[in-house]
Amino acid sequence: MSDLVRTEDLKKYFPVTKGLFSKVVGYVKAVDRVTLSIKKGETFGLVGESGSGKTTFGRTILRLIEPTSGRIYFENTDITNLKGKALRSIRRKMQIVFQDPYASLHPRKKVKDIVGEPLIVHNICKKNEVENYVKDILVKVGLDPKDIYKYPHEFSGGQRQRIAIARALILNPSFIVLDEPTSSLDVSVQARILNLLNLLKKKFGLTYLLITHDIAVVDYMSDRIGVMYLGRIIEIADKRELLNNPLHPYTKMLLSSVPVPDPKIAKSRKRMIPMGEIPSPLNPPPGCHFHPRCPYAMDICKRKVPHLINVGNLHEVACWLYEKK
Amino acid sequence: MKPLLEIRNLRLRFHTLRGDLDALFGVNLKIYPGEVLALVGESGSGKTITALSILRLLDPTAEITDGEIIFEGKDLLKLSNDEIIDVRGKEISIIFQEPRSSLNPVMKVGDQLIESLMAHTKISRDEAYEIALKLLSRVGLPDPKRIMNSYPHELSGGMAQRVMIAMALILRPKLLIADEPTTALDVTIQAQILALIKELVREYGISVLFITHNLAVAAEIADRIAVMYAGNVVEVGYVDDIFEEPKHPYTIGLLRSIPKPGYEGELYSMKGEIPSLLKMPPGCHFHPRCPYTIEICKSKAPPMIKIDGNHEVACWLFMEGEV
């Protein structure tokens, strides 16, 4: 399969300023040298806890946030420095759905204007055709085309998320970043949105980057999974391989922290109760960021950053334990 | 065994500008000494207002119209204001989802702990300091002396929740109400807090009413589970029974909609949506969404029916004999 999106050494550093003249006193390395490829037609799940940089990564590859350095490729075109018309035309093909459908929809606009606006921005159709396009897409996401003149507050959380999905879909994109698309929804509603996303993916041949902290969701949806910790990708593998055979101590700790909806397993399984807390991204530990919480930390972990190495089975891990001596 | 707390037929109504809205329709719950009872349900099911009713921390627009909440022989709903203040913290304490917003932001953590001790017991400040310090180290906070001297904003979410737990336990209450205590935390921190709560239950023998929307969290922590739907408790039972042999069609639907490890097919989804308080269906509130609705469901609310000793369900399908 060919790559749809690829990053090389992508960095996004946010400056931390202090004082009257905004002197830069340090950087938060939200995305730190991430090299990653997302294949055409797959759902790539990016997991990590708060502050790991997963959201910043998703926004940077869409050029919603300017990268500090590194390269971003979309369909083998370098889009890192695209501007103006060229950027706009590539943006048609990449869209995003946000976590909170209560915040991501304009409260004083009607569904027709929210979902139809991209058509006007990109000059896809005449103003009098917008309504038909919008009705058509509403049906595809499971909403009633009669709702076109309603406002967001007239819908439930799940329906609002459908509106957000309709807006992302209307330009017929090939790539959608799903940033915690079901985190603010109840489980019974979550089930429907996940089903819808899978259905749309098949129907329109979409590729997803699914950003989430919910392992159950990423397990259900993804083909491959990447794990982030403090700005770095620390492990990537096919879904089953990663979940059944996690290698990085952080991935192991993360997976064993996830509560399972089965009391028998919950009581019988051996758990690794995590040590410590995620350090401040302002001042992360040197070497491997995970070493202060790692039960297997060695001397080298404190000094040198481990790089992703392939350990076979297309399984990559950034940990000195797996480096060949 | 006698329950530590028993809620009987609790009914609650909100007075709003758009008229009166019923929100609890006769909730029954028992919490036994030393157990963790998880109250699960989706948003708007009434979990939190049930918990707040126990301590009478409700908003002034809410009115309890019927029912009793019996705690150690007394009805909490009949206590005077002074008497209920005495119960809070000392007998029953509560922790919330957002620990940092439950702490006073302009007061040092240590002073907040000492204040609650000194308000309820006759001890000196030095003694109170020692007790607070010990408890902070017991809840797993490194360097408790520094924490005593910190302001809430200097703590991480996980640390703040540990402080809240210490504060909730400092007067040695018999019941701890935990309202989504790990929802705002990362999953590794959630695992730590759940493990801590389990340890403290064993060590102090307290009971916990654990409110959560997350069935997996309930499976990890609870001895028994009560499922709420649209203002009613629809099923109660031991955690294993609820997960292995759920009876109420809503519980079944809820369990089937969670993605399970390794499952790839389409997820089960219940039809319809959670009803709004403005348009509560008559009879069993779940009947418009239920795949097994019979005639009586549409007109009459089902009573709690015993399946076996400890498993109860509010569903007409389990009524024996003529309905």
How would you characterize this protein structure?
The complex is a heterodimer of chains A (325) and B (323). Chain A is of the alpha/beta class and 325 residues long. Chain A is built from eleven helices and twelve strands. Chain A has an eight-stranded mixed sheet with strand order 6-7-8-3-9-10-12-11, sandwiched between helices. In chain A, strands 2-1-4-5 form a four-stranded antiparallel sheet. In chain A, α3 (111-121) packs across α4 and α5 runs parallel beside α6. In chain A, 46% of the residues are buried. Chain B has 323 residues and is α/β, with parallel strands linked by helices. In chain B, α4 packs across α5 (125-138) and α5 (125-138) crosses α7 (157-169). Chain B has eleven helices and twelve strands. Chain B folds into two domains: 1-91 and 174-250, Rossmann fold (3-Layer(aba) Sandwich); 99-172, no CATH class. Chain B has helices spanning 47-55, 81-87, 99-102, 109-120, 125-138, 144-148, 157-169, 187-204, 215-221, 239-244, 249-257, and strands at 5-16, 19-31, 36-40, 62-71, 74-75, 92-95, 175-179, 207-212, 224-229, 232-238, 305-308, 311-313. The two termini of chain B are 32 Å apart. In chain B, strands 6-7-8-3-9-10-12-11 form an eight-stranded mixed sheet, with helices on both faces. In chain B, strands 2-1-4-5 form a four-stranded antiparallel sheet, covered by helices on one side. In chain B, β9 and β10 form a beta hairpin. Classes of the chains: A alpha/beta (325), B alpha/beta (323).
